Amino acid sequence: MNNLNDPQDWNIMPERQGDGGGDSSKWNYALLVPMLGLAAFRWIWSKQFQKEIEDVKVKMQKDLDLERQECCNIKLECKALKYKIFRFHEALKKGKEQEQGALNALNEVQKLLMKRQKAFCSPFVYRSWREDEERELMAYTAKHPLAHLKMENDLIDIFNNDRSCAEYLNADPQKNGGLMWLYLRYWRQQLTLQTHQRAEAILGIQTKK
Fold this sequence. Notes:
With 209 residues, this protein is mainly alpha-helical.
């Protein structure tokens, strides 16, 4: 009599005996199918997950390489900037030394012009002073460090047109002269401007006009 709870070939009982290994093979096959499916799923999932990991690693490496390159570029830019600043300060220092030498020479020119103007305001003295001192003053300003100012025409203008004298019996030589003081101020401004222009030229900076 058939077992209604166990239709033929529906349930696979590992302890059933009968036709040899038939039932056992069905049992093994029934277990193998889901196991293979699970293994395939796990393999596919593992491969997909591994690919995502590799993609993230590649992106992180690219970002890291980019960051390193940016840091390297920043370091190079900082190094170049420091070098430019160093060159600028060296040029400025040298320019200041040249400016100071020119200012010292210009102070000597001022003394000579004051002496000349005092003589001019004393007619009897001026005639004897004028023959040699004016030529010597022209020659002095044509030498370094005042040569670049090209003062010859300015001095001729002073000699020919500066007739300003202080009051009679004036004891202050700085009261004599008018045009000469304007030129002296102009020459000093030129020296300062040229000092900065030389420093800026080294860095390739054009002075704004």
